[in-house]
Design goal:
mainly alpha; 66% helix
Length: 131
């Protein structure tokens, strides 16, 4: 079947760029929410490791921020996509008590976007070079 807008197919290289930017914004907002609600995050980690709960809370924030920056600029996109998929999976499994987007569909969409970035690559305007 013929496409209705064949001229738009010439912009298909930019699709992973938009996915990358959207995933980076969601993960950055997640990190920002964790910075604002640090005490709730520490309370979640307390039963697991009571002595090191603040350390684990800040470690999670640093990992989220690093993944968001790497996805946004396109640095090591596939590695960042794996980390983003793991964060999204953690959002799905932990639910509303640990992660900011309380809507489980947002976590599922982030998981799908990160898995598609793993397969598609970085797209345009990235530091990764396709091999």
């Amino acid at each position: 079947m013929l496409t209705q807008f064949p001229a738009l197919l010439s912009y298909s290289f930019f699709a992973p760029t938009l996915l990358r930017a959207a995933a980076a914004v969601v993960i950055a907002l997640l990190a920002l929410t964790h910075v604002r609600r640090e005490d709730e995050l520490e309370a979640i980690f307390s039963p697991l490791v009571s002595k090191f709960a603040p350390t684990f809370a800040w470690l999670l924030v640093i990992i989220e921020a690093a993944v968001a920056i790497a996805l946004f600029v396109g640095y090591r996109t596939q590695v960042a996509a794996i980390a983003g998929a793991l964060l999204a999976l953690m959002m799905l499994l932990a639910g509303p008590r640990i992660m900011a987007p309380r809507d489980r569909s947002a976590a599922f969409l982030l998981l799908v976007v990160c898995i598609s970035l793993l397969a598609l690559g970085a797209g345009a305007f990235a530091f990764d070079l396709p091999l």
